Amino acid sequence: MHERLKTKRSDKGTGNIKNDKRKMKFSASKIVIAAALLSGGAVAALNLSNGGERRTFLQKGAVAAAGTVGILSGASLPQVASADDYSDYTTTDSGLKYFITKEGTGEVPLSGQTVKTQYTGWLDGFGSEKKFDSSRDRGRPFTFKAGAGQVIRGWDESFTSMKVGERRNVIIPPRLGYGDKGAGGVIPGGATLYFDVELLAIL
Predict the structure, then answer these.
(1) Which of 73, 88, 21, 11 is nearest to 42 (CA)?
(2) C-alpha to C-alpha distance for 155 and 145, rounded to whole angstroms
(3) For a tag on the chain, would you pick the N or C end, based on fewer CB atoms within 10 A?
(4) pLDDT confidence of 184, banded at 50, 70, 90?
(5) Contact 167, 137 (CB under 8 A)
(6) C-alpha distances out from residue 7 to 3, 4, 11, 15, 16, Å
(7) Can 178 be counted among the known catalytic residues?
(8) Which residues are paired to 98 by β-bridges?
(9) List 71, 98, 124, 132, catalytic entry
(10) Residue 66 burial (CB < 10 Å; 0-12/13-18/19+)?
């Protein structure tokens, strides 16, 4: 009898250990899955600026590819520079600001014409650590139809007033960019965008 009780207790103890191990494995699996989801979201967000077609990144609607997770390091909203920092910039009626860094000598594109461009975009100011995309880094110009709503409003306004060969620093307020929603976990809601843009050609 005692031997049977010992065996049952031993079996019960072994069962508890097995159950504990199963729980530990299940918990570990959940952690791994969660980590995979987070890293997958970050990769998806990074892919928006490091590969594939650029037009999807600059469309007016929010990019959904990484919106469910987002980038952990980009949670805070960017700091908006004071007006005094850009007193030498021209401000348009829409609120867009720009400064010409290189004069152009070519034609100004009409709405609907395809333009060939180069650009770099930042949050938190020109040359900041928060660069979110750059055609120059990829070594591949970006083309789109100017003034046709294929890109954010700030871009349409900028490129339909530039001459071929011109290069500008452009500050785009949220309502001319991605608004309160942001885009794809890369650009937070309410973000002011800072672009160095250049009009290479009208195609």
Answers:
(1) 73
(2) 11
(3) N
(4) confident
(5) no
(6) 6, 5, 6, 12, 14
(7) yes
(8) 90, 170
(9) 132
(10) buried
State the DSSP H helix or E strand holding residue 113, giving kind and residue range, or none if neither: none
> Does the annotation count 71 as an active-site position?
no
Secondary structure (DSSP) of 40-99: HHHHHHHHHHHSS-THHHHSSSPP-TTTTT--GGG-SPPPPPPGGGGTTSEE-TTS-EEE
Residue in 133, 142, 144, 194 annotated catalytic? 133
Instruction: For residue 141, give the amino acid letter.
Output: P
User: Which of 119, 110, 105 lies closest to 169 in space, CA to CA?
Assistant: 119
Active site residue 86: no
Which pair of tokens denotes residue 27? 């918990």
Residue 145 contacts by C-beta under 8 Å, 6 or more apart in sequence?
112, 113, 114, 115
C-alpha dihedral sign at 154, 155, 159, 165: positive
CB-CB neighbours of 2 under 10 Å: 6
Span 102-131, pLDDT tens digits: 999 999 999 999 999 999 999 999 999 999
Rounded CA-CA distance 84/90 in Å is: 12
- The mean pLDDT value of the chain amounts to 72
Which of 119, 142, 159, 194 is labelled catalytic? 119
